[in-house]
Amino acid sequence: MDLSNMSVAQLRALQEQVKKELAQRETQERAQAIEKILAIAKSVGASVEELVAGVKLKAPGAEVAPRYRNPADAAQQWTGRGRQPKWVKDWVEAGNDIEGLRIAA
């Protein structure tokens, strides 16, 4: 499909069609997933509730408390996850122990 030859109105109409199609497919996929989950539960003789009892799901985007703070700028904090910020690297490269940045619990 060559989008470069379409007018703005045609592109917007296409965008709306895509949104509707995506919503429909997502609904179908969820329904299929539910069917599969129910089939698995039935195959082991349990309810879905019994299978997921005690399972804690992590909320997407859940906040992680910072573990380290820049002593020169308290606004700069790091959770200890992912790449080290420059201020942490500079601290360690200067011969300091990273534990010196740890926030007291």
From TrEMBL:
Classification via SMART domains: HNS
Domain DNA-binding protein H-NS-like C-terminal, first and last residues per copy: 58-103
Keyword presence, Cytoplasm: yes
InterPro entries: H-NS_C_dom, H-NS_C_dom_sf
Localisation per UniProt entry: Cytoplasm, Nucleoid
Molecular function in Gene Ontology: bent DNA binding; DNA-binding transcription repressor activity; minor groove of adenine-thymine-rich DNA binding; transcription cis-regulatory region binding
Keywords from the named record: Cytoplasm, DNA-binding
GO (cellular component) term, any one: cytosol
Family designation: Belongs to the histone-like protein H-NS family.
Descriptive protein name: H-NS histone family protein
Taxonomic lineage from the root: Bacteria, Pseudomonadati, Pseudomonadota, Betaproteobacteria, Burkholderiales
